[in-house]
Design brief:
This protein is an alpha+beta fold. The protein has three domains: about 80 residues, Rossmann fold, CATH 3.40.50.20; about 60 residues, 2-Layer Sandwich (Dna Ligase, domain 1); about 170 residues, ATP-grasp fold, B domain (D-amino Acid Aminotransferase, Chain A, domain 1), CATH 3.30.470. Helix content is about 30%, strand content about 30%. It is built from eleven helices and 17 strands. Strands 9, 10, 11, 12, 13, 14, 15, 16 and 17 form a nine-stranded antiparallel β-sheet that branches. It has a four-stranded parallel β-sheet with strand order 3-2-1-4, sandwiched between helices. It is globular. The chain starts with 9 loop residues before the first strand and ends with a strand.
Length: about 350
């Protein structure tokens, strides 16, 4: 284990939400400590981490103290201010790297990166003004979706255009934020691949999961997904291409549309991913442990699956159905420790075992 991060070392995690919480648990299972940096007070990850720094990402002194108390830094969300990363990177290694973050933080940069690899994406055009909006609609057509280039997630920062007449209101909805117009893709269903790459370049992917969204938020992920052998192979290969092109270290989620003409990349997420939660009860090594293994220099698990799984997100008042799930012997419950249920807020998830891997 001479090349591994020494046992007992501290892994710094930027972000204290549910992903940071589950990363902290995985780190502890492998003999590591965790230290979470989070602006909000009493975040979910604080319940299970060894240390918590509560400070803003603009607080240089707090960032430096945090970096000095950890051995390696990772993150649970991608919209970390560049200034904070500049401060931290001077003191400690950050995995995944800045290239991955820069690519994913801006939808235009991400689309350009994916197309440069020869991968298919939805047609897209830059929108920053009424004139560019008119050009984009003429180029991309309608129906389409106008999305902010930065800081959008779970359906936020988006406006749909059914006809060109919707362009004015859609642009107003962006409130001046730089945006991207994406054409609709005719697809049968969406799948995602959870891939991982180690420090020495080993790449491993879990089986693709099939996703269903409600109101722009992931509702279920079911494994195995409805894919042909060729489609499953293509999904894994293209994920590996993305990981290698970014010289990536850690776990990444890659969302794909399944179309008659092949797979279309919807987006990438340089972190552990909601659609990978099924691995907690479908695999010997889940995505969270896989991520810790990658950044700590361990060999990766092969990602094999022992069970078919349906992952169900508990959103808002869904948490009220917990008694029903608790009575189901095939359901594994994962709650995030959030005290207040709000509409659209992820409160936990349930992994239901459907049977042995098929």
């Amino acid at each position: 284990m001479s090349d591994y991060l020494p046992l007992g070392s501290t892994i710094g995690i930027l972000g204290g939400g549910q992903l940071g919480r589950m990363l902290s648990v995985a780190a502890a299972r492998l003999g590591y400590r965790s230290h979470v940096f989070e602006p909000a007070k009493a975040p979910p990850a604080a319940h299970v981490s060894d240390r918590l720094t509560t400070a803003d990402y603009e607080d240089d002194e707090a960032l430096m103290r945090f970096a000095e108390q950890v051995d390696v830094i990772t993150y649970e969300f991608e919209n970390i201010p560049s200034h904070a990363l500049d401060t931290l990177e001077r003191l400690r290694p950050i995995h995944p790297n800045r290239k991955a973050l820069t690519t994913s933080q801006d939808r235009l940069t991400e689309k350009d990166f994916l197309t440069s690899l020869g991968l298919r994406t939805a047609p897209y055009a830059v929108v920053g003004s009424a004139a560019e909006m008119a050009d984009a609609v003429a180029t991309v057509g309608t129906p389409a979706i106008l999305k902010t280039r930065r800081f959008g997630y779970d359906g936020k920062g988006q406006a749909r255009l059914q006809t060109p007449q919707d362009a004015k209101q859609a642009l107003a909805d962006m409130a001046g934020a730089p945006a991207l117009l994406e054409g609709f893709v005719s697809f049968s269903h969406e799948v995602s691949v959870i891939g991982a790459r180690s420090r020495d370049g080993q790449v491993v992917c879990y089986d693709p999961g099939e996703n269903v969204h409600r109101n722009g938020i992931l509702h279920t992920t079911t494994v195995p997904a409805k894919l042909s052998v060729a489609q499953r192979t293509d999904a894994v290969i293209l994920t590996g291409r993305i990981l290698n092109a970014l010289d990536y270290v850690g776990v990444m989620g890659v969302e794909l549309f399944v179309t008659a003409g092949g797979l279309v990349v919807n987006e990438i997420a340089p972190r552990v991913h909601n659609s990978g939660h099924w691995t907690q009860n479908g695999c010997a090594v889940d995505q969270f442990e896989q991520h810790i293994r990658a950044i700590a220099g361990w060999p990766l698990s092969d990602g094999r699956r022992h069970s078919d799984i349906e992952m169900l997100n508990l959103i808002g008042d869904d948490i009220g159905s917990i008694d029903e799930f608790a009575r189901d012997p095939a359901a594994a419950i994962h709650l995030y420790g959030k005290s207040q249920a709000r509409p659209g807020r992820k409160m936990g998830h349930v992994n239901k075992v459907l049977g042995p891997a098929s």
